[in-house]
Design a protein that fits this description.
The protein folds into two domains: 153 residues, RNA polymerase II/Efflux pump adaptor protein, barrel-sandwich hybrid domain (OB fold (Dihydrolipoamide Acetyltransferase, E2P)), CATH 2.40.50; 124 residues. The chain is built from four helices and twelve strands; from the N terminus they run ββββββααααββββββ.
């Protein structure tokens, strides 16, 4: 009949790498030991790409290299996202400038230029009116053909239109921007800012950041390789927080307790290490 086993976690005092180990628990009597085997484990994370693209490592990621929490280990090269962010930034600048122009009102120089344009249009109209009157008189005297009089009439109408246009422009400049124009410009600025934030967030996702203090265990891609979204570019573990997970027969559970000191060895090393029983599983397997 197969014996039921209980899982046991032991925190390690010192260990350099994950491997098999033999754990000896001191019994109630001196010289009495329980010997079992288990695996050394550690908090381990996969550094994954959030976006597809060309991989560029920012530091040496060979096995054994330490990595700090929040350190950018690599980036996904995406020139298209960089260009998109620049376009969105320019759109924000343009929208902000347009809103500033509308809220600040017309400049004095623009108003003066519009006043000059109106006076010029009025002078041209007065001259066109005189030319038209002269053409009518000459046509009545049959001194000029009808076509010449018609040209004078057209010139007079055009001069009148120019006067009205100049008056309208000057009136708009003096009145300033309408509230609905300002509201529309402000909404466009807010929209442009939101688009810029979205493109900046997307560009931020090109960074591959380590979430823990740890040590590189494996590097899974080479520099310049194309990676897909979700691909693990490196594996990092916290070797300062390690434990051994072992299974023992339930008959031996009375011999162990939380906080109990243990000694263990690691295959490939002649040294003996110490640890503490930190957790006993509530269920047997």
């Amino acid at each position: 009949m197969k014996k039921r086993m209980a899982a046991l976690l032991i925190t390690l005092a010192v260990v350099a790498a994950a491997c098999w180990g033999y754990v000896r628990y001191a019994g109630e009597n001196q010289g009495s030991f329980l010997e079992v085997t288990g695996t050394i484990e550690a908090t381990q994370v996969e550094l994954r790409a959030k976006l597809p693209g060309t991989l560029h490592y920012l530091l040496n990621t060979r096995a054994g290299v330490p990595v700090a929490k929040n350190q950018v280990v690599a980036v996904i090269v995406r020139n298209d996202l960089v260009a998109q962010r620049e376009r969105d930034a320019l759109a924000v600048l343009k929208a902000r400038a347009q809103l500033a122009d509308l809220t600040s009102g017309a400049r004095e120089q623009e108003i003066r230029e519009a006043e000059v344009a109106l006076r010029t249009a009025e002078v041209n109209y007065e001259q066109a009116a005189r030319d038209h009157a002269r053409a009518v008189t000459l046509h009545q005297e049959q001194a000029i053909p009808a076509s010449e009089m018609e040209k004078a009439e057209t010139a007079l109408k055009l001069a009148a239109y120019q006067v009205e246009a100049a008056k309208a422009r000057l009136g708009l400049l003096r009145a300033g921007s309408r509230p609905e124009q300002i509201a529309a410009a402000r909404a466009e600025l807010e929209r442009s800012v939101a688009v810029l934030k979205a493109s900046e967030a997307l560009l931020e996702d090109t960074k591959i950041v380590c979430p823990i203090d740890g040590t590189v265990l494996t590097r899974n891609f080479e520099e310049g390789e194309y990676v897909t979204a979700g691909a693990s570019v490196a594996t990092v573990a916290n070797l300062n927080d390690m434990w051994i997970k072992v299974y023992i027969p339930t008959d031996d559970l009375p011999r162990i307790r939380l906080g109990q000191q243990v000694r263990f060895t690691v295959s490939g090393s002649p040294n003996t290490y110490t640890g503490v029983i930190e957790e006993i599983a509530s269920r047997v397997e």
